[in-house]
Structure formats: structure tokens, C-alpha cells
């Protein structure tokens, strides 16, 4: 074989090998890495993770180990803009500038919202106080009656409007509406003093939690977003579980957090659920 033919054969062999193993042959340019994914995290204290170390923003009680930060750390080439803030509701998404984090090239948006629109934390605190005063009755159910259903119905169009605003500002983004962890145990009798809800009020509060979760799922579906349902996985991780098991703290937290909010394990579980949703 002539020298020219030998060189040609060697070149063909090298090109074939490169194609098989996915390595560019000499002189071929490697494909450019994918551009960073712009990730905007919006929402309330369930997303900002107050009390979970370490604090990144005192005003919003935002943690460096909230679920958005954990998600961004595990997504390749992600750039995070985290504007989650304790106390946020659908109104403050606009008035306090959370929507300003959205751009035309945002690729991923997570939103945890609705709890403050229905007054969830205030309800839990009031029901704790009522349970302390009347431990054997149903003081919470008697106090609120059907009024909690009215709150959920009133919040539904507000959550829908928030999702529409996200779609308008970031039309190419994958939008995830991230639901809340399960808080209420099935049986409060072994839970005092971690919570002060009465046994008679547990079903009432559990129904309220489930109704809020159902509303969020319904709105997400209607507005073309994906709903991340954290309720089933956290069913055995409620406030009445032991220190090493629970994902949400009770009235007297023993893991770093604030009352009735996710601890570090809860935020990690929410991050896992969001990451799983991004691959579907």
C-alpha cells in the first residue's frame, strides 16, 4: 500500500473511532456547552425557609438552604434569582417586586403561594390557642365553620392570575407551582405539647389542608403549569413525628426553623420533588 493510501486509511480509522466514542476528531470543533438555565424562585416562607441555616436575607427570612438553592445547586448550568420572602401572598408578588425577577429568557420558575392568601399561619396559631383553652372540644371548627372554604375559593383566581403573569413575563419557562408539606397529623393525642390542636379539630384542619392543596393542583392544571404535590410524600413526616423524622416543626421547634414551617429536611424533600418534576 502506498504511503498516501496508508495515511488515508489511518485517517478514516481515526474518524470512525471518534464517531463511535463521541470524541471530535482532530480538526473538528466540539459543540458548545448549553447556555445557563435562568431559574427564578418566587413565593412565601415555605420557600424562603426562615430559621433554616444559613440566613441569606434577614428581611425576607431567606435561607441559603431553602429548596430553590438546593435545586439550583443540582441543576447543571443554572443561575438562580431567589426572591422568595416570608409573608408573601399573591398581592405582594407584584407590590414587593417578585415578578421583576422574571425575564423573557427565564427557563424555569418555581412558585409556592396561597397559604398567606387564606391566612393559614394565623388559623394555625388561633386554633392552637383555642385548643389550649378547650382541649376536649372542637373550638377551631366551631370558630371558623365553613369560612375556610370561602377563603380557598377567594384565593383561587388570585393564584391563577399569578401564574398568568409568570407566563406573560417568561413565555418560554417551565413553570412549577410547588405545593405545601403535610402539616396536620391524623391523631393529635400523642402530639402535645408540640401542637395544641384538639383531637376533635384534627379532621377539620386536615380537610382545610387538603382543600388548599386540591385548589392549587386545579389552578396549575388550568393555567398550563406543573403542580408539585408534596402532600403524599410528607404524610408520615408531620409535626407530630420525632425530631429525626419530621419535615415540619410544631409550636415549639426543636430543629432549626420557625413554628409550623419546613425544617432543613423538609426543604430538601421539596427540592427533591421539584427536581423530579423537571425530568418529567
From TrEMBL:
Entry-linked InterPro entries: SEST-like (IPR037460), SGNH_hydro (IPR013830), SGNH_hydro_sf (IPR036514), TAT_signal (IPR006311)
Occurrences of domain SGNH hydrolase-type esterase (ranges): 41-269
Leader sequence residues: 1-30
One Pfam family of this chain: Lipase_GDSL_2
The UniProt record lists the keyword Protein transport: no
EC number(s) recorded for this UniProt protein: 3.1.-.-
PROSITE patterns with a match to the protein in the record: TAT (PS51318)
Gene3D superfamilies: SGNH hydrolase
Keyword Membrane annotated: no
Keywords for this protein: Hydrolase, Signal
GO molecular function, one term: hydrolase activity
Protein name (database record): SGNH/GDSL hydrolase family protein
Organism (species): Streptomyces fildesensis
Lineage, uppermost ranks: Bacteria, Bacillati, Actinomycetota, Actinomycetes, Kitasatosporales
Amino acid at each position: 500500500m502506498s504511503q498516501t493510501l496508508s495515511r488515508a486509511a489511518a485517517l478514516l480509522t481515526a474518524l470512525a473511532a471518534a464517531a463511535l466514542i463521541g470524541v471530535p476528531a482532530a480538526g473538528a470543533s466540539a459543540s458548545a456547552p448549553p447556555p445557563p438555565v435562568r431559574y427564578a424562585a418566587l413565593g412565601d416562607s415555605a420557600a424562603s425557609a426562615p430559621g433554616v441555616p444559613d440566613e441569606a436575607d434577614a428581611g425576607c427570612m431567606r435561607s441559603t438552604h431553602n429548596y430553590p438553592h438546593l435545586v439550583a445547586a443540582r441543576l447543571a448550568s443554572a443561575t438562580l434569582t431567589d426572591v422568595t420572602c416570608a409573608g408573601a401572598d399573591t398581592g405582594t408578588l407584584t407590590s414587593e417586586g417578585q415578578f421583576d425577577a422574571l425575564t423573557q429568557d427565564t427557563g424555569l420558575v418555581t412558585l409556592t403561594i396561597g397559604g398567606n392568601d387564606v391566612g393559614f399561619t394565623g388559623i394555625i396559631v388561633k386554633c392552637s390557642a383555642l385548643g389550649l383553652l378547650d382541649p376536649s372540644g372542637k373550638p377551631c371548627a366551631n370558630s371558623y365553620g365553613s369560612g375556610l372554604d370561602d377563603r380557598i375559593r377567594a384565593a383561587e383566581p388570585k393564584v391563577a392570575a399569578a401564574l398568568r403573569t409568570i407566563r406573560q413575563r417568561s413565555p418560554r419557562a417551565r413553570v412549577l407551582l410547588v405545593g405545601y408539606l403535610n402539616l396536620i397529623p391524623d391523631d393529635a393525642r400523642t402530639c402535645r405539647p408540640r401542637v395544641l390542636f384538639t383531637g376533635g379539630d384534627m379532621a377539620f384542619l386536615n380537610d382545610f389542608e387538603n382543600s388548599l392543596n386540591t385548589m392549587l393542583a386545579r389552578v396549575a392544571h388550568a393555567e398550563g403549569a406543573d403542580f408539585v404535590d408534596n402532600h403524599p410524600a410528607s404524610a408520615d413526616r408531620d409535626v407530630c413525628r420525632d425530631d429525626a423524622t419530621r419535615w415540619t416543626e410544631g409550636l415549639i421547634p426543636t430543629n432549626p426553623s420557625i413554628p409550623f414551617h419546613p425544617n432543613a429536611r423538609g426543604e430538601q424533600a421539596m427540592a427533591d420533588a421539584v427536581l423530579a418534576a423537571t425530568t418529567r
